[in-house]
C-alpha cells in the first residue's frame, strides 16, 4: 500500500542523512585517530600491554620499560581512511619490542589479532558516540 501525504519532511530527512553519512564517518575516523594514539601512550605510561598485562620489568637499567627517551611512545600515529583506521610507528625497533626477541621479552604496544581488548573497544565506542553527537549538533535545525 503506497504512503500518501506530504513528503517534504521525508525528502529533507533523506537529504540530511545522506549529508550526515560522510561527515559522521570522517568525524568518527578523526575521533578514532586521537583515541587510538592516546590508548597506546596510556599503555606506555602504565607499562601495560593493551590486554592489561604488565610489561616485563627492566633488567639493564632503572625506570619504566620503553620510556628511556620517549621516542617510541611519541612516534605512534593513526590515520583514518573511510572506515579503516591504521595505527603505527616509524621507529625501526618497534617490532622487536612488540613481538620480543630471543634476548628480550615482548612488550606489546598494540593489540594482537582482530579483536580489541574490552577497554579499548569501550573507549572507541565512547569516542564514536561523542563524534556523532557533535556532528548532529552542527546540523541545521528545520
* Strand order in the sheet with the most strands: 1-2
What average pLDDT do the residues reach? Answer: 84
Shape verdict: elongated
In what range is the share of β-strand residues? Answer: 5-15%
Instruction: Give me the Rg, rounded.
Output: 21 Å
Provide a count of the helices.
Answer: 4
The total of beta strands comes to 2
> Major sheet, described briefly?
2 strands, antiparallel
The helix/strand order is HHEEHH
Report helical residue fraction: 40-55%
**Uncertain spans:** 1-7
What is the SS-derived class?
mainly alpha
Distance between the termini: 29 Å
Outline the structure in words.
The chain has 4 helices and 2 strands, in the order ααββαα. Strands 1-2 form a two-stranded antiparallel ribbon. Residues 1-7 have low confidence and may be disordered. 49% of the residues lie in helices and 7% in strands. It has 142 residues and is mainly alpha-helical. Strand 1 (77-81) and strand 2 form a beta hairpin.
Amino acid at each position: 500500500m503506497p504512503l500518501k501525504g506530504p513528503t517534504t519532511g521525508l525528502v529533507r530527512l533523506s537529504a540530511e542523512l545522506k549529508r550526515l553519512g560522510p561527515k559522521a564517518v570522517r568525524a568518527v575516523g578523526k575521533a578514532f585517530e586521537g583515541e587510538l594514539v592516546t590508548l597506546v601512550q596510556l599503555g606506555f605510561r602504565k607499562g601495560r600491554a593493551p590486554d592489561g598485562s604488565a610489561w616485563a620489568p627492566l633488567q639493564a637499567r632503572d625506570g619504566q620499560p620503553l620510556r628511556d627517551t620517549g621516542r617510541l611512545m611519541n612516534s605512534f600515529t593513526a590515520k583514518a581512511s573511510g572506515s579503516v583506521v591504521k595505527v603505527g610507528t616509524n621507529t625501526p625497533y618497534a617490532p622487536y619490542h612488540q613481538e620480543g626477541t630471543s634476548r628480550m621479552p615482548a612488550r606489546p604496544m598494540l593489540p594482537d589479532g582482530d579483536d580489541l581488548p574490552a577497554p579499548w573497544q569501550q573507549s572507541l565506542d565512547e569516542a564514536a558516540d561523542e563524534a556523532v553527537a557533535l556532528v548532529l549538533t552542527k546540523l541545521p535545525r528545520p
